[in-house]
UniProtKB/TrEMBL annotation:
PANTHER family: LIPASE, LIPID DROPLET-ASSOCIATED HYDROLASE. This is Uncharacterized protein. SUPFAM superfamilies: alpha/beta-Hydrolases. It is found in: Lipid droplet. It comes from the Eukaryota. Belongs to the AB hydrolase superfamily. LDAH family. GO terms for molecular function: lipase activity. One of its GO terms (cellular component) is lipid droplet. One of its GO terms (biological process) is lipid storage.
Length: 340
């Protein structure tokens, strides 16, 4: 496919009539294939000025609307983010912007490498996959700027890329960032037990029930405010025991591995960081204050946006347009600072 970068392989079985292309990035062993989405630049034939590399959050199972900020809190499959990323590119009027999003390995239903060990699901395997894709993107599109957007735990992964490639990352947008002490957040305390081996095995087995749930019943369970297109993405997840195991295994590691805030990293690269916080966020909780206080006495100079109270952690379900508008504004600010 001519409009794909050379390092991506098309995925025709997931073809969608939209501005983006489904593809696979085949990481060398032991990582294996990762699902990707590619938004080609709006001005074909012209040199790409900026490439946005998007890293999603973790896919939490969404079982009931009664805990809206917990089990509805982390829709991490790439397809949940297509309205947000499409809206972001649609606002590109000043430069030739391309967007590349990569799923966490083994999280996308139907895209697995069954011959590889389960260690590929590890949190640090996902970090390595993001670094490999970043390096490949830089090599392909140089001298274009490559910047990162991370949502939820994707923000933590993006910071690890920045830590390993400090001279190459143009900027990092941290959306609803879960970058420290996740186990101590309100949702971490409520849900960490579900990520353990026995509960996640049981939950994965329940996917057999999920295959029989009609779309109309699922709509009632999660809430009528969910768009049908997003509901279909959710249905794909709950019908896949492999994806469920992978996401819950990764969630278990997050509880143990993402603890102390890397204050030195944040301070060193503060000029390349942008933060977006929800008014209330069960996946961030009191850690928001910890993050901001780490910049004292210069917290006032940080690039911080406090989202509208109506925009939740799971912004990509219904509020992609609003967050895309903010990211677009940040892109303009980043370009202006580079020029100056």
């Amino acid at each position: 496919m001519a409009s794909l970068p050379s390092f991506l392989d098309p995925l025709p079985e997931r073809s969608i009539n939209g501005p983006y292309i489904n593809a696979v990035f085949n990481h060398p062993p032991p990582l294996g294939p990762a699902h990707c989405l590619w938004w080609p630049p709006l001005k074909p034939g012209m040199r790409i000025e900026t490439v946005v590399l998007f890293i999603p959050g973790m896919s939490s199972l969404i079982l009931t609307r009664r805990i809206p900020d917990a089990l509805l809190g982390n829709p991490g499959l790439l397809d949940f983010y297509t309205p947000f990323l499409t809206a972001l590119q649609d606002k590109d009027l000043t430069e030739n912007l391309a967007i590349l999003a990569q799923a966490h390995i083994d999280h996308t239903p139907g895209i697995y490498h069954d011959t590889l060990p389960h260690s590929r699901h590890s949190l640090y395997a996902q970090v390595q996959s993001a670094i490999e894709l970043f390096d490949t993107t830089v090599a392909e599109f140089s001298p274009a700027r490559v910047m990162l957007i991370g949502h939820s735990v994707g923000s933590w992964v993006a910071l690890q890329v920045l830590k390993q490639r400090p001279d190459l990352v143009a900027g990092v947008f941290l959306l609803f960032p879960t970058i420290c002490h996740i186990a101590d957040t309100p949702n971490g305390k409520k849900l960490s037990s579900l990520f353990k081996p026995v509960p996640r095995h049981i939950i994965a087995r329940l996917s057999a029930v999920g295959k029989r749930i009609p779309l109309c019943i699922l709509h009632r369970l999660v809430g009528r405010e969910w768009p049908i297109v997003q509901l279909k993405v959710l249905r794909e997840l709950i019908r896949s025991p492999e994806s469920i195991r992978a996401t819950l295994r990764m969630g278990d590691e997050e509880m143990f591995e993402i603890r102390e805030l890397d204050v030195a990293l944040l301070k060193e690269h503060r000029q390349r960081l942008w933060f977006y916080f929800a008014e209330r966020d069960g996946w961030v909780g009191e850690q928001k204050a910890l993050i901001l206080n780490s910049f004292e006495p210069d917290v006032g100079s940080l690039r911080i946006t406090y989202g509208d109270p109506s925009i939740p952690h799971a912004f990509c379900i219904n509020h992609g347009e609003e967050v895309a508008q903010q990211c677009h504004q940040w892109l303009l600010e980043m370009n202006l600072s580079i020029v100056n």
